[in-house]
Amino acid sequence: MEEYDLLLENVKENKTMAEKIYLHPVLERVWHAIHAICIVVLIISGAQIHWPGAIHLFGSFQTAVSVHNWFGLLLVADFLLWLIYNLVSRRIIHYIPNKRDIPNGLIVQAKFYICGIFKHDPHPYPPTVDEKFNPLQKMSYLMFMGLMMPILLISGILYLYPLYFADFITSIGGLKVLAVIHFILAIIFAAFLIAHLYLATTGHTIQDNFISIVTGYADSEEEEEA
């Protein structure tokens, strides 16, 4: 794509110097750690609930259900913490695509992931203090955290307390429909977790992004005129 080639040419025409930028504040790192633990535990406990004969990590079926329920409630609290923090601090802007991102930025970033990364091209959208995510990351977070996560959590709460929401559950087709919705979203999130872990290895080095989410500091490229 012409825009992708022009962007790479513009990057290569400048001398680049890796610098450390403070990208992830403490609250974001705490949230990310809790969120990651919750997602992993919920995926495993949920799998044991659906396939009790094949998975026994949490012991009995009832224990798996109890673990799933408690970590589900923790995930609800964790999500609300993330939402309130980002709204109050206005850091929510990092997760919202802008006019440059749609569609051109999405196409440029997709082309980088599909072929540019294997040619060792520089990242077309390196993280900055003002814009920490690339266009595809923004769109992914908007879809998963802005749309699918609320639906996943609400479906879980409805399933956990069906007597309190009996009329609504009946109106959408009953507990079986609710269970299918929850299960499909869980599968999507499990797939996203795998993709997320893979893409996390696409920093300057394989471990850079993992170190960044622990320390808060990330490498960026400071452009200087040659």
UniProtKB/TrEMBL annotation:
GO biological process: respiratory electron transport chain
Origin: domain of life: Archaea
Membrane topology: Multi-pass membrane protein
Pfam families for this protein: Ni_hydr_CYTB
Gene3D superfamilies: Transmembrane di-heme cytochromes, Chain C
Residue intervals passing through the bilayer: 30-50, 70-88, 141-165, 177-199
Subcellular compartments: Cell membrane
GO CC annotation terms, alphabetical: plasma membrane
Sequence ranges assigned to domain Cytochrome b561 bacterial/Ni-hydrogenase in this UniProt record: 24-215
Assigned keywords, A-Z: Cell membrane, Membrane, Transmembrane, Transmembrane helix
GO MF annotation terms: electron transfer activity; heme binding
KW Signal (keyword) present: no
Protein name, UniProt field: Cytochrome B
